[in-house]
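2024-03-11 09:14:02 INFO worker-7 job=invfold-0412 stage=load source=structure_tokens
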């Protein structure tokens, strides 16, 4: 099979070729606007520092005062919920140690909830056509 999409990055494992992107959003506890510029500058490298260890890649990141947006490329062998949970746990621990005022403002930095949506690069029609073309091969 030949994959024709030069704009997309493909990764391979011993028996797997993949490209799985997810749009991820999570919020601060009670949507408190505690992520000021200093914390935002620290949070970005904290998230990126876990890429190799947790086997994901950050494709885009936007940090607001009360929530975080990420586009992550994740290995499909690792559940995206696990990856996001580990990122949230690690960043909360480090930020609350480095910025003690966060401990007094809210009981925990992040809410338990998160939004995760897959990001596709092709439409349903393209997939259907590909499947139909495979029948003719």
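2024-03-11 09:14:09 INFO worker-7 stage=emit residues=137
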């Amino acid at each position: 099979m030949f994959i024709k999409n030069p704009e997309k990055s493909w990764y391979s494992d011993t028996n797997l070729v993949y490209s799985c992107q997810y749009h991820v959003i999570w919020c601060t506890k009670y949507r408190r606007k505690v992520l000021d510029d200093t914390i935002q500058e620290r949070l970005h490298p904290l998230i990126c520092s876990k890429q190799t260890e947790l086997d994901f890649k950050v494709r885009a990141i936007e940090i607001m005062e009360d929530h975080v947006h990420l586009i992550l490329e994740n290995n499909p062998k690792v559940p995206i919920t696990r990856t996001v949970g580990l990122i949230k746990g690690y960043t909360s621990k480090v930020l609350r140690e480095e910025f003690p005022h966060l401990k007094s403002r809210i009981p925990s930095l992040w809410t338990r909830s998160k939004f995760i949506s897959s990001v596709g690069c092709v439409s349903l029609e393209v997939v259907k056509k590909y499947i139909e073309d495979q029948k003719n091969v």
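2024-03-11 09:14:09 INFO worker-7 stage=report msg="The chain has a mean pLDDT of 86."
2024-03-11 09:14:10 INFO worker-7 job finished
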